Amino acid sequence: MVTGGSESSNSNSDSNPTSSGGWSAARGLVMKSLVLLGGALLLKRLTKSTTRWDHARLVARSFSGEKISTEQASRDPDNYFNIRMLTCPAAEMVDGSKVLYFEQAFRRTPQKPFRQRFYMVKPCPKELKCDVELSSYAIRDVEEYKNFCDRPRDQRPLPEEVIGDIAEHLTTIYLKRCDRGKRCLYEGSTPPEGFPNSWSGASHCTSEVSVLKNNEIHIWERGYDDDGNHVWGPREGPYEFKPAPASSNNDMFSPFNFPIQQSIEKRIEGSFVLQD
């Protein structure tokens, strides 16, 4: 009996390491599979293609809100005014293009805008080497749209009225994604010859725009006469519009207006693949 018990004990002793070793191997295989699966999912997420409409939505979102040139005006008051730039969604075209209402005013008199425009934001045509087309249009009745973004929604013209009030085309800026590592997300300009403009003795004007991180916008507009002489606009560089510290226009950032996640911005910074 003692001998039988000893043999039984030895048999159990021999089987345990085998069972333990099998479980360890299986567990290691499962962990390795999970690591490989997680890595594949992460790689897929990081390399996910950014569509042309993603670019257009991010530019529209970056423009929206209250932005001011206060810091720049304090730094260089001889060349830059303290201006408030206010932009918000106004309508959407049938093809998905975003229509934004845009106005500028001196910050001390925000209720009296000196410039009012509609911006239309959409992807660049495939044949052009750019990502986003930003076009500005005149407004048929600017008085009707004064302080549009500051008003409650039920006191604004309806989207169908906005579309009907889009007047003549003024300029188009062709934006491209900035190279990786640069401070900007997008930058671009009008064509070298610019667009017709007769203000203050000019014959044409040019515009350069940079969309920076943290929703900062730089705009450099200049007018030239027939001989190429600079007649209006800052000479030293663009206006730097930074988000106002405390905007009263909180609703313009709601997901209802722009259903876009912060991850899209990260994808656009890191992705170099475009889809339709």
Automatic annotation (TrEMBL):
Pfam families, alphabetized: CpeT
InterPro entries listed in its UniProt record: CpcT/CpeT, CpcT/CpeT_sf
Leader sequence segment: none
Region (Disordered): 1-22
Keywords: Lyase
GO MF annotations, alphabetized: lyase activity
PANTHER family given in the database record: CHROMOPHORE LYASE CRL, CHLOROPLASTIC
Homology family: Belongs to the CpcT/CpeT biliprotein lyase family.
Entry protein name: Chromophore lyase CRL, chloroplastic
Organism: Ziziphus jujuba
